[in-house]
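Z., the sequence and structure:
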Amino acid sequence: MHSKKHLSCSSIITSIREWFETIPDPRAANSSHAIADVMLSGLACMYFQSPSLLDFQRRMESGQHRNNLRSMFGVTNIPTDTGMRTIIDQVNSETAFRPIFKDLFAKLQRGKHLEPYQIFPGKYLLNVDGTQYFSSKDISCKRCLTRGTKKHPYNCHQVLQGAIVKHGLRQVIPVMPEEICIQDGESKEDCETNAFMRFVDKFRKDHDKLGVIYNGDALYATTPVIYKIHESHDNYIFRVADDKHTTLIENLKALDKSKTYATSRRENKVVIEWVNDVEVFKSTKIKSNYFEAREMVPQKDGKDKAQFLGKWITDIKITTDNAKIILDSARARWKIENECFNTLKNHGYEIEHNYGHGVNLCYNVYNFTLLAFAIHQIHQLTDILFKKLRSGFGSMSSLWNYLRVMTNILYFNGIEALWIFLIESENYHPPPL
């Protein structure tokens, strides 16, 4: 009933612990809590979406001389909340998390779970977008950005996130993010496009043989970004905006568009029009392939109303055979907003909650939350036992509520033991009246 061994929950946690054990420890040799224990405690809180998890497990240890943090995550010594935040703040985010995200990705490749995500042979859609996960008018730290207006400024933390997605597939595969913050030696505020340049360099180093198509909004449809993508021998699909791409829009007026038809999810006719090899920017003479689409939505009077779906550019040559695939890929950009950011902010992960500031604390907590989310996505994608457990609950939030309650009051030999307990509870029959 289990998934492949290297993708089982216990195997993933063991692997993560091994990575955490490699984190350099600048503290004294007699420190009471190992960094691996602290990091795994932080991950466990986010995995169960329970900031109070440590307190419950300390009570269990006091009463039963055992606890679920040890059996499920291998935590030898449970840290205090304050001590945990202090130590996590000292840990370099890149050192701690990048190898883990890379390793999880490799495990999915090894199990051939990524193959269905290919858009074209050997090509994956990598959605990229920025998000804000903390903001305050009063609280700040050295890594905070200043946003807003001169009269109404505020402090915030932002990140550029990437995720492998595909139209029609529910799970998204997040990769190591790039923090948007003032870089060492710089005095200017950082921005999303600068973070993207760093993101590409690091992503290419981690996944040098993976073919990707970057999918983003109109912010990315610029000459420097396109040059950067071509340097890494990748492709792109970017939305365009009339006010930001005036040269392109003007050039299209004199060109005839090719056209094909497709069917939407609502079984409506979709009209796709395109022009290959059209100049986008007058100053740099960059050319790209333009496409737009509209859906013909039936009305009560029997006529069809055209619903405009958008305008995009791509360096993939558009043909009648691939136009629908490219359009579906372009429109899958919303998946990083809905399946990733919206889930992290509004469905139990509470990514915008402030756990504290310092040197690395805020961004490390984001990475803990993202890592927990990534593990959950892997469970849903690969683990047969978890899928069986999931089928017994109407919503994910209901499932995690049960998992939290059971973890806080009962002891289990491992996470899979908890899953089996809940699965078998379906067979429970109360005594007769």
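Residues 5-90+356-427 form one domain. The chain is about 40% helix and 20% strand.

Let me know what you think.
H.
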